[in-house]
Design goal:
The chain has 82 residues and is α+β, with helices and mostly antiparallel strands. The chain has one domain: Beta Barrel (OB fold (Dihydrolipoamide Acetyltransferase, E2P)). It has 2 helices and 3 strands, in the order E-E-E-H-H. It has a 3-stranded antiparallel sheet. A hairpin with a 5-residue loop joins strand 2 and strand 3. The chain is globular and about 40 Å long. It starts with a strand and ends in an 8-residue tail after the last helix.
């Protein structure tokens, strides 16, 4: 697999007090970046990776994180913005 992979995860508190999952991606050049996922994105990521715990996400590709964020974002697609 090429590209970034999940190297670690941790639980964090969101501004509203809800739990979020912070996923650390390790890129092919060794750099790391953090991505924060809300509950909808976490559910989509767990489903896509076929896992039930955050630790089991390690090694999965960044594409699954991207797709989970898309699922989370699209849940608001029916709402109109003015």
């Amino acid at each position: 697999m090429s590209g970034a992979v999940i190297s670690s995860t941790r639980i964090a508190a969101a501004h509203d007090g809800a739990a979020e999952l912070v996923v650390t991606l390790r890129h092919t050049n060794g750099a790391c970046s953090d991505v924060t996922l809300d509950e909808a994105a976490v559910a989509a990521l767990f489903d896509a990776c076929r896992v039930t715990t955050p630790d089991a996400l390690t090694g999965h590709g960044w594409e699954k994180v991207r797709d989970a964020l898309t699922v989370s974002w699209n849940r608001f697609a029916h709402l109109k913005t003015n």
